[in-house]
Amino acid sequence: MSHSDEKLLLANVSRRGLLKGLAGGSALLLAARWDLGLANEQAQFGAGAMPGGWVDDPNVFIHIDSGGVVTIVNNRAEMGQGIRTSLVMVAADELGADWDRVRARQANADQDKYGNQNTDGSRSMRHWYDPMRRAAAAARLMLEQAAANQWDVPVHEVKTDIHKVVHTATGRELGFGELAKAARELDVPGRDALVLKSASELRFIGKESGLINGELKSAHPKAIDGEDIVTGKAVFGGDVDLEDTLYAVVARPPVYGARVKSVDDSDALKVTGVKKVVRIEGTGQPAAFSPLGGVAVVASNTWAAMEGRRALKIEWDRGPAGDNAGYTSEAYREALEKRAQSPGKVIRQRGDVEAALEKADTRVSATYYMPHMAQAPMEPPVAVVRIRDGKAEAWAPVQNPRATREGIAGVLEMDLENVTVHQTLLGGGFGRKSKPDFVTEAAQVAKAFEGQPVKLQWSREDDIHHAYFHAVSVDHLEAGLDSDGKATSWRHRTLSPSIASLFAPDPKHKAEFELGMGFNTMPFSIPAIRLENPPASAHVRIGWFRSVYNLPHAWAIQSFAHELAQAAGRDHRDYLLELLGPDREVHNLTVGDGWNYGEDPDMYPIDTARMRRVIERATEEAGWGRETGKGRGLGLAFHHSFVSYTAVVFDVEVDDEGELTIHRADIAFDCGPQANPERIRAQMEGSVVMGIGVALKSEVTFEDGVAQQGNFDKYLIPRMPDAPKVVRVHLIDNPDDAMGGVGEPGFPPVAPALCNAIHAATGKRIRRLPVGDQLKA
Amino acid sequence: MVTLDINGEQHELDIPDNMPLLWAIRDVVGLKGTKFGCGIAQCGACTVHMDGVATRSCMTPVSAVKGEIRTIEAMAEDAVGKKVQQAWLDLGVAQCGYCQGGQIMNATALLKKTPEPETQEIVDAMAGNLCRCGTYNRILAAIERAADEETSS
After folding, report:
1. For the whole model, what pTM was predicted?
2. Domain limits for position B134
3. Where is the Aldehyde oxidase/xanthine dehydrogenase a/b hammerhead domain (chain A) (predicted)?
4. Which chain B residues contact residue A679 at CB under 8 A?
């Protein structure tokens, strides 16, 4: 078998295995999805390998009315990353549309028509940039052809100017609106007939605008939803307002897997406004995207429903929860830390680590802990579902409209074509809303109220108690250094419950896509490497949280690299660059990763030169090496994820009382070509702030299977005083590599960079997150 | 019966006294710009003005409402609110946007009381408004921009 055959085989097997896990583990996911996934998977990478694939038909995405209003369909979830503006802007630029006359329309859930709509993996732009440009170029060509026909001239004599087509020789021109009807009747040109605009012809794509590092140098093209957001008109999930709406909340089992034993709803039904109490069945473990079950209280307004829920007397049967009912996160941490002392399943091996450790002049070892966290988007889960005439209609803030539609069809035993899902804006997602359990739950309740819409609202306590938690993680590293301080061996054991436990009997080991998030893809050039994954079982629903397993992997590896630099008595940046070794492109398969974020490893190798460049840029911009004085220091970390590259430097100060001040963050980012730099900067700024929360504040703990934090008084996330006084974003100009992700890759290196800065300022090494009050006393 | 003055309109509502203003505004009156984020006055997404003072509507029972309630929907007609909204747009503050109505309400109340706040005053005043997307640096910049507009006009 040739090398490239092996690559395709491995990549496909891994993705297929994942899809199978998703489909097989969930009764709610129809076989259709599974078949579709396979049919589109003929040795493809990227967008083409995703269920539903890509679509570039201009008639699907671009509509021009006779008045010249251009409506562009956005098929991805808008959750704050700005895709409704950025993707529509890409099409508008290629089309030649006047931005003031462009509108966006949100696609409802229809993957057969619109292509893949599952908004995760930081891939909306990298998968849809080309199809949207082609769709727009085809629409432009159709407008030009329509004008040429009307003027009876060859099409090559006409060209598109902003929102109009002109015949230069005669000075004639026709607006898009005037041409729309005739253009629509033409055949869509073949892809080989399309000529995309050159960089110099573009007005928006790749152009810097708006606020750049604190300075407003030029206005940015207005955001599609900007005006609606600041005036309170933007429609998020809970803002859908239908006549005769009923309002519901649900009391769910406090422990994952528990069930209702008995309910006394007599007091609940006495609450003014409460209409009915409805038992809903969960589907047990593994939960997949299914509701947890419990008791719904349905009322004439949300408050009455909440009051009614407070009055319920429910006895829970913890039996079906098994071990989960005894899950205590502190004991679990201790158990994982102990297990990390023994070998585990070998994931990647090079040389003889044990022998190299024996021979080392200095041995360094450390264990790092990252707790459970909840995504806690500011908009808690919420959905509206109406069932009538054998059909279901849902309005919901979901990242994965297709899975939502399938989930509803599953619980209502309806055909997919009888289920419509309208995509609202998402008040934040961060992975929580890739799981449509809250929509299928609303469908279960709506079943009892045929003809009436039911709005099911999760409280913040519901959201945090019943999150799909970020996996708790223990990472144990040991390395050997020679007499010059050079690393000669590196052993890393990683232990976390797997997201695969959601879909199938708990595998107790990380799946390939989880290991591929910065664990086996660790880029250091060290002669002896062994990476191991001892077992860890899941006791709560484990799910995607922005950047997913990149978070603990980056946190452990980047903290440990700093510890090695310290042990070697070397400057951290210089030492990191040495660990990286000479510039090279590492093929993912050579490090045992057959996943590579679903992308072609030849297009997207692990490129250590790009790592070096972000490290150099961030440190230069931050003034690395400058004197900081007592109690103040700079810290650095970098990470490669979602086929993009990030490095962060923090400048922090800690006073005698242990009070931390973050003076500045410099984040350097290379995602290859930049579609909308204005929103890329915003994502980097947000990643820095959210990452500060991971480092300093956020933790969900469990006692006897019950989450101990339920709201923002105990589950702490960053507030304005926690933000750095200054955040500087440094985008690497790199139009030549393939386009990478933006929403997630800025996030993983933030926590280790901040903890390394704390060490530089205080000498105190943080190995357990969050920092909390570890700096006090 | 409870009578509420919301954005200059009188609403007679047949609701229990202990219903938080938030749910009266959202579910009964039907104005959706005021958001539910936590229910315990920890996040600020539900912020409205009560006689000009930033107030967490999720913890304010309707029986405790005194004076005029103004919500984000009324800020375009408010001289200061309008400037704050424009500063938000100029600087591209919003990401998901869910918390921003509450942020704007809080910022507007601050600038009405303190037209030229020091940076630290802004940070202190905004500490009760959470943004999970992490837009704090732009929020701060936008408030300073609106304050400049306010004092220069």
Report:
1. 0.95
2. 75-152
3. 231-320
4. 92
Show which of B39, B73, B107 is a domain's final residue. B73
Q: Does A724 touch chain B (CB under 8 A)?
A: yes
B65 and B6 assigned to the same domain? yes
Supply angle C-alpha B51, B56, B62, rounded to 5. Answer: 70
- Reference A394, options A351, A350, A441; nearest CA is A441
Same domain, B89 and B140: yes
Q: Are residues B126 and B138 in the same domain?
A: yes
Contact predicate A414/A470, CB 8 Å: no
Distance from CA of B98 to the nearest CA of A (A): 5
Residues B67, B79 within the same domain: no
In terms of Cβ atoms closer than 10 Å to its own Cβ (0-12, 13-18, 19+), residue A68 is middle
With beta carbons under 8 A apart, name residues in chain A contacting B29: none
Burial class (CB in 10 A: 0-12, 13-18, 19+), A659: exposed
In sequence order, which residues have a C-beta less than 8 Å from that of residue A185 and are 6 or more positions away? Answer: none
Average pLDDT for B80-84: 98
Asked if residue B108 lies in contact with residue B78, where contact means CB atoms within 8 angstroms, the answer is yes
Q: Tokens for B86?
A: 């424009």
* Cβ-based contacts of A248 with chain B (< 8 Å): none
Put simply, the answer to whether A226 touches B136 (Cβ < 8 Å) is no
N-to-C CA span, chain B: 43
The CA distance from B96 to A743, in Å, is 12
pLDDT exceeds 70 at position A38: no
For B40-61, the pLDDT digits (tens) are 999 999 999 999 999 999 999 9
Residue (of A507, A602, A562, A510) closest to A43 by Cα position: A602
Question: Which residue in the set A82, A216, A236 is minimally distant from B90, CB to CB?
Answer: A216
CA-to-CA distance for A181 and A167, rounded, in angstroms?
A: 19
Q: Are A388 and A360 in contact (CB under 8 A)?
A: no
DSSP assignment, residue A761?
Answer: H
pLDDT tens string A657-704: 999 999 999 999 999 999 999 999 999 999 999 999 999 999 999 999
* B62, B128: one domain: no
Tally of domains in chain B: 2
Q: Please give, rounded to a whole number of angstroms, the shortest distance from the CA of A102 to a CA of chain B.
A: 18
B85 and B46 in a single domain? The answer is: no
**Model-level ipTM above the cut of 0.85:** yes
How far apart are the C-alpha atoms of A339 and A349, rounded to whole Å?
20
Q: Given CB atoms, is B33 within the 8 Å cutoff of chain A?
A: yes
